[in-house]
Design a protein that fits this description.
The structure is a single chain. The chain is mainly beta. Among the domains are: 125 residues, no CATH class; 61 residues. It is 12% helix and 33% strand. The chain has four helices and 37 strands. The strands form nine sheets. Strands 24-25-26-27-37 form a five-stranded antiparallel sheet, with no helix packed on it. Strands 3-2-1-36 form a four-stranded antiparallel sheet, with no helix packed on it. A four-stranded antiparallel sheet has the order 4-5-6-7, with no helix packed on it. Helix 1 packs across helix 2 and helix 2 runs antiparallel to helix 4.
Length: 581
Amino acid sequence: MAPPTPHLAVRGSEGTFLLLGPPHCEESPTFQRDERQGRYVAFSRDGTLFGWSNGDKVSVVKMSTGELVKSFDLPKTAMLGFSPLNKVLVTWKQYTKTQDNPQGDANLQLWDLQTGNCIKAFYQKKAEGWCPRWAYDESIAVRCVNNELHFFENNNFETIANKLHLQKVSEFALSPGPQPSKVAVYVPGSKGAPSFVRLYQYPNFGGPTSALANKSFFKADKVAMLWNNKASAVLVTASTEVDKTGASYYGEQTLHYLATNGDSAVVQLPKNGPIYDVSWSPNSSEFCVVYGFMPAKATVFNLKCEPVFDFGTGPRNAAFYSPQGHILVLAGFGNLRGQMEVWDVKKYKQVFKPEAADTTFFSWCPDGEHIVTATCSPRLRVSNGYQIWHYTGTVLYKHETPSGKELWEVVWQPFLPGTFPEKAVKYQAASSELGSTQAKPAQAYRPPALRNKPESSSLKLHEEEPPQSMKLGAGDKQMSKAALKNQRRREAKKAAKQENKSDEAPAPESEPQPVRQNPAPSTHGDPETDKKIKNLKKKLKAIDELKEQQAAGKPMQKNQLEKMQKEEQLLKELEELELGL
C-alpha cells in the first residue's frame, strides 16, 4: 500500500484551506475553504483530525473525507489542541474580567469529542504553557498551577491524582512515548542559590532522593527542555536575558545534558557566543547544536556529549533533522539571508546548498523528502508566501500572497512514526519547471577604506573552518577522559587565537611580540606575588576575549578599548613578576 499524501494547512487573510502536498500541490477537494480570517489551526497527533477557529466557531473535521466531527460556538477562541488519542479537544481564550464579574470566566476548556460536552474548565491566565500535556496513551495529563504540577489520570479532571510540589517551579516537560512517563522540572534559583532541573518518573515524587537525575547551575533566567524520542535523556538550554560581560546581545546560554540513568554533564562548546538552536536526531542517539558568534559553528554530539562531526563555520542559526533522521538541514533565517545546507548525516556529505531569502518558517514534510519554507506576518509583512521544495534544492511549488494580503501560518499534516519509510539519499536535483536556487558564494566584507584598492588574499574578517570528523582514532581511544577534555580545550583556544590572527598587524621580526602561555599555576613562595600574577593573567584573558569580539565585528566601547590598550603594560608587569625582578 502506497504511503498517503500529506496535506499542508494554510492560514492567512485569504482564509483557511488545505493544500494537497507534493507531487500534486493543489487545493484539497475534500475540504471547503473557509473564507473568514482564521485565528488558529491544529492537527491531531496522528493527523486524522483537523481543527480551526475562524472567530465565530471552532470546527473539527476528518482529514480522510472532510466530514464534520464537531462544531462549537466559541467566538473568542485563540488557540486549540487535541489529546494524543483524539478523545479531548482543548480550547483557550484570553482571560478577561469586568466590574460585574471580577473573578472572570474559566478560559481553558476541555471538550469530549464524542459527545461535545465540556469535561472541565480551568483558569489559565497566561498563554505560555496553556495546554495540558498528555502521555501518549492518555493515562496521565499534567498542568502547572501555582508552583505545583497537577497530574490527572485517564482524563478524569475532577480529581487531582498526584501532585509534585517544588517551590517556584516554572517549567516542565513530559516525556514522549510509552509508559512509564517521566517529567523534567525546572526551578529558578534565588538568593544566591542555583537553579536546577530534576527528572522524575511518575508517580515517584518522594523528594530529591527519588529523582532520576539532578543538575544545578547558575546563570539561568529561563530554560528550554527537550526530550529525545526514546525519553532517555533531556537537553536543557539555560539562558540569561543579559550577558554581563557585554559579549552578546542575546544574553548568555549554556547547554546541559541529563539522562534517566542519572548521568548529567555540561556540553562543552569550543566557540564562544550564543546557542542558536539545539535539535535531537530522531534516533535519540545524537544531537546537533548551532552556536558561536557569526559565522556560527554546528556540531553533532553523541550521548557522552562528545563531538562526532563538526560542520565548520557558516551563516546559520537553525538545525532541522528529517523525520527519519537521515538528513540534516542547517539554515540561516531571520536576520540572515536564508542559506540552507542539506547534509546526508550517515555519510556526513553535503547534498545541496539552496537559498530561500526572507524565510521566517521552515518545516520538514513527514515523508522526509520535501520541505516548506514561508515568509509570514507579523514577522515580515511584505513578500508573504510559501514554497514547497525537494531536499535536493528543487522548488516544486510556489505561492506568492497577493499585495495587500498576509500569510500567517503553514502547518504540515503529521503522521505516526513509521508511516513513511526512510529512502536512500539522492544527490541529483529533482526535476521541476521552477528550477532550483543555489546559494551564491559569500563575498568577503571589505571595509570602505579598502574597497577601491587591489584585493589581498590575507584580507579576511573571519577565519573560516571547514567541516571535519571528530571521531576518535585508535590512538585517541587510549587517552583518559581528562586528557581528551584538555585536548579539546587546547584546540578551542587555538581556534580562537587563529580568528584574531587575521586582524592583528604582524610585528617586525626584530621586535617579536610576547607570546602568552597558560602554564601551571606559578609558586614563587610569596602568596602576594602569586596573587598578583593570577590577577594579571585574569586581566589578559579578558583582553583576549575582547579582541575576539572585536574580530567578530562587535563595536567596542571606550572603556573596552582603554582596557585593550593596557595589554603591553600588563605583559611587562607579568614578565617582571615571573622573573622575580
